[in-house]
Amino acid sequence: xxxxxxxxxxxxxxxxxxxxxxxxxxxxxxxxxxxxxxxxxxxxxxxxxxxxxxxxxxxxxxxxxxxxxxxxxxxxxxxxxxxxxxxxxxxxxxxxxxxxxxxxxxxxxxxxxxxxxxxxxxxxxxxxxxxxxxxxxxxxxxxxxxxxxxxxxxxxxxxxxxxxxxxxxxxxxxxxxxxxxxxxxxxxxxxxxxxxxxxxxxxxxxxxxxxxxxxxxxxxxxxxxxxxxxxxxxxxxxxxxxxxxxxxxxxxxxxxxxxxxxxxxxxxxxxxxxxxxxxxxxxxxxxxxxxxxxxxxxxxxxxxxxxxxxxxxxxxxxxxxxxxxxxxxxxxxxxxxxxxxxxxxxxxxxxxxxxxxxxxxxxxxxxxxxxxxxxxxxxxxxxxxxxxxxxxxxxxxxxxxxxxxxxxxxxxxxxxxxxxxxxxxxxxxxxxxxxxxxxxxxxxxxxxxxxxxxxxxxxxxxxxxxxxxxxxxxxxxxxxxxxxxxxxxxxxxxxxxxxxxxxxxxxxxxxxxxxxxxxxxxxxxxxxxxxxxxxxxxxxxxxxxxxxxxxxxxxxxxxxxxxxxxxxxxxxxxxxxxxxxxxxxxxxxxxxxxxxxxxxxxxxxxxxxxxxxxxxxxxxxxxxxxxxxxxxxxxxxxxxxxxxxxxxxxxxxxxxxxxxxxxxxxxxxxxxxxxxxxxxxxxxxxxxxxxxxxxxxxxxxxxxxxxxxxxxxxxxxxxxxxxxxxxxxxxxxxxxxxxxxxxxxxxxxxxxxxxxxxxxxxxxxxxxxxxxxxxxxxxxxxxxxxxxxxxxxxxxxxxxxxxxxxxxxxxxxxxxxxxxxxxxxxxxxxxxxxxxxxxxxxxxxxxxxxxxxxxxxxxxxxxxxxxxxxxxxxxxxxxxxxxxxxxxxxxxxxxxxxxxxxxxxxxxxxxxxxxxxxxxxxxxxxxxxxxxxxxxxxxxxxxxxxxxxxxxxxxxxxxxxxxxxxxxxxxxxxxxxxxxxxxxxxxxxxxxxxxxxxxxxxxxxxxxxxxxxxxxxxxxxxxxxxx
Length: 1027
Prior knowledge:
Blueprint: H1 8-11, H2 25-37, E1 42-45, E2 48-52, H3 63-69, H4 81-95, E3 99-104, H5 111-125, H6 130-150, E4 151-152, E5 160-161, E6 164-171, E7 177-185, H7 203-211, H8 214-219, H9 245-258, H10 263-280, E8 284-287, E9 290-293, H11 296-306, H12 310-318, E10 319-324, E11 327-332, H13 335-365, E12 374-380, H14 392-423, H15 436-443, H16 449-458, H17 465-475, E13 482-484, H18 490-495, E14 500-505, E15 508-513, H19 517-522, H20 527-534, H21 539-544, H22 547-551, H23 559-575, E16 578-585, H24 598-607, H25 610-617, E17 623-626, H26 627-634, H27 649-660, E18 667-669, E19 673-676, H28 679-754, H29 765-781, H30 800-821, H31 824-840, H32 862-876, E20 883-892, E21 899-907, E22 910-916, E23 920-927, E24 932-936, E25 942-946, H33 949-952, E26 959-962, H34 966-977, E27 983-986, E28 990-994, E29 1000-1007, E30 1012-1015, E31 1021-1025
Parallel strand pairs: 2-16, 3-12, 3-16, 24-27, 29-31
Antiparallel strand pairs: 1-2, 4-5, 6-7, 6-12, 8-9, 10-11, 13-14, 14-15, 17-19, 18-19, 20-21, 20-26, 21-22, 22-23, 24-25, 25-26, 28-29, 30-31
Helix pairs in contact: 2-24, 4-5, 5-6, 6-7, 6-9, 6-13, 7-9, 10-11, 10-13, 12-20, 14-15, 14-23, 16-17, 26-27, 31-34
């Protein structure tokens, strides 16, 4: 911290305790402004951190800053929220002392952001392990949920917390976060039904309408138009242009998922939120003094969402049941009371929903086991409020701040006294403003303002705000911190109304308007409405309106009594912890960066009690520091301690201050620290140190220059030695290189010759090139001359790839020459052989027998050729058909399978099956393009000609033929038709053939010897093929 003292005229002092005129409020505010203008938003008052909201991002919260502040002493580094958090965290972890960070300030001063930075730092410096990360995620994601339901846009702050929050972060013995717990105080539920001009209702209403999907809104009976909802229109044009409600809603949904809310809980929670919006739209008319509901659709939506009876809720909103002396009386409400009942119900539902949400978050944040853990508390609570018109809420808030100020002064004085006693320094009593008298004025049992308010709420008759004010004026007329209109002087009476009273708080005088005090303190919800809510089918509603509440006849505690009880419990919690303080200040009311309103800041400095705190801190000594740190910084100012002190640090500091000429009353020597009374003493020491630095710098420069010169000489000497060494080395290398080259050349020649038949290398490359040339010459003289004898000459190892390519290319060349020399008849034969191969290879076992014989066009014996030729010339030729293939076949009858000799004639258009005896008789004719051919995959020669349905009527059925040259015949037919698909080769044991009138026959195929085709005992045609 001392490193910036030389710039104090420009940037001020980091610790206000070092201000010379520490009692001057102007000097304190001026110091804050200097630092604010330099983007230094943090200032200390001893251990208290003062934070001024910059209203801009100043980039001082990144990972590098977290690393800079981690495990650093509080005063080692510039003021920062990370420094305070690190000190509290290390005290909890290393000293096992529970901590509490108290954050205070008015709306818009940055309290919520400060609490987020505390959580951010704790999350960053703790270990990143699975279970720990889950807990940290829950702690961080609980904030968006609480802000959505508990924060709202006000004229002072776009994200103003409208409730007090105390969060405990629980740590295990390793200092790792394992859970958390949240307490909430005094939610401003009146905001649900009414907002000031320019302000908004709670964020969640706007986020739900902006971020929910259309289907979700339909389920909740909502529309996106804000003006449709009465409870959202009080603030006028307050839609919050600076707020991204859709993005915030996504954050809420993400937080809900992280905190493990069930689908039912989410649905019911948002149903309750929607029901509050609809409740504002329930209107009333009045007939003969009785209220009537005018907007039934809003009531219907409420009942649907929270699961209550529409008739019961309607009656509860327009009637009131009173039990007195055992009699039950139900009376109708007028319009004014009905509106009051509706608004009271809306406030009660939202307030209890918020309490349920906090309890639900606590269940999610609880650690898995029940062990007691050390905790660090974060209290983010509203600061002191002084408005133009102050009401019941301001009294509660200012009462809370009075209690906190009382605790603050008590703990600050206590810690100061403990440090003095620990260090052996005499303690002097400090005069300060003890605000216990104000706390007693408000909360003293049977005598305080709270007791008077509760008495008025409970007494029979018709108590009013005016009667209560009269009673207060009477009871406190002699109290010097209570001022009534009657008691005030003439000047004060001009500024006070008769319905107002004034309290002299520690932070200033506050005038409260009594109107509405009784109503807000009573916080009355009619019994009929409670009963209606208790009957809800919504599980959350059931839990926040329990059945036992309906049965109980006991009057609930008043609002301020409940608040006092919870506040006293909070004080008990804080008393058991070691406190740290963050005081947040808002620099201007326009929420702009670089604008510092001195009047506004001075007002906040007053009601935050900062001058009182500074005065208490400065009552003794302005500066204290451990001996080791003080000696380490300033030891250069004394010859005896410079450059190194060999004794104890305390003795060294004593020697140092004696040399500096400190007066006896300017300092005290504690057990571990030096205490300096006046800032000017420290400033003089620091200024002397800054001057001394120039002298030290000159000495360091002189020493450094001599060292540089010595290094230069030694470097030059070493360079000369190196050069000599390298010259000698170079000469030796040249001689060795010459010898190496000679040996290498000889070795290369021998190795190249020995490896000439191996893979190509740089060594044998020349020999291999020679071998390639010799081989090519030999090859040119011994090329194969016959296509059937392709013996290829051997080659060297290096020519294997080239030899393979040349062999392939030369073979292709010989084949090409051979093909060009072929005659048309032989070419046709070869083409038919190629076609046969594509049709039957690896498909028909009889195919290999056909390879060695040429195909012929006529297989008929010579004795039959004459008569057959005459028949073809006379019968077939006149039709324009040409004979293409003729062969004798054996035809098997369709029924008895009797074999009959026939001649098969294939023309360019059709099949002819002829019976040739002494004459030729045509038995069958089938067009080629309509039949299909079926053969087996075995060694048989059977061909089945399958006929289509239309030919089946003219003929008896499919033809079964045994063809001697089956492969030849089928190849000729396929070549003639160019239709390979008409041939089917079946690899199966039975084939079905079709006959006339839908009858079928079966051909069985088996293997064996000898080959035969005959009718089997089963009546089927049996083909026995050789294996």
